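QA checklist item 7 of 12: single-chain prediction sanity check.
[x] sequence parsed
[x] length recorded as 294
[x] structure emitted
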Amino acid sequence: MPPISRYLQLDVFPATPGGGNPLGVVLDAAGWSDAQMQRFAGWTELVETTFVLPPTTPHASYRLRIFTPTREIPFAGHPTVGSAHAVLECGIARAVDGRLVQECGAGLLPIRVEEEGSNRRLFVRAPAANVLRARGEDEPLLRSVLDGTRPGALPPAFVEGGRRWWVAEFADEAAVRGWQPDHAAIARLAQASDSLGLCVFARCGGDAYDLVVRAFPAGVGIVEDPASGAANGLVAAWIAQREPDGPLARGYRVSQGREMGRDASLLIHIEDAEVWVGGNTATVVAGEVRWPSR
């Protein structure tokens, strides 16, 4: 019989039930091979599936491996926050002074735990961001993707921090929500730049959120992501760098996913040039998984 592991399926960053980004988390995954992990992640057909392992350093609370349906990746925001939720729910680790430490392909990442129970919010400190290109409009493939759109205050940029993303600000919320991008063109851009793809955003004047975001990770074969922690972390780093005294420089609220029939809410905290991305997470399915070795 195949080994039995605990399994949770989560709703990460939901503003309303079912509005967030689904995530599969396999606990007790020490006996799983690389091939088993990849096949199971492909079988779930979720944007990402994670596997929780014992840490290899005493400085970490646990170790995490993250898989898309086609490959392993070093870091992603919603899998990190969701897996921290799973680790706490299942008693694998406990917060010390309000923090966990995740060991993953991007190194040791602190995760802050705020509140308890249904009010609990988890925040990961995003990997330090590096702006690779500050005037992205000079990239011909990006110009092609953005042709006909109305730009916002900041120029497009190519930013790296755990992942590589192109980020572009649009003039207003309606421009982001109503945009019908050329997904093949985004895929060409992602392939040429060895990046995940393009994340677009706009500032909003409403009371419920400050930014609207859409993320198109064509570099890993995904058309659109309903709630992207890593992309939002790089958008926040770009805003904080260019507008250190602006109204968003210390953090803001994000709406994402409505164009896909979802309703996600992410919270951004910016402290001493560090970006923390987080929000709520809910367990939807709890059970066990039995996955054969071949």
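[x] summary fact logged: The chain has a mean pLDDT of 95.
[ ] second reviewer sign-off
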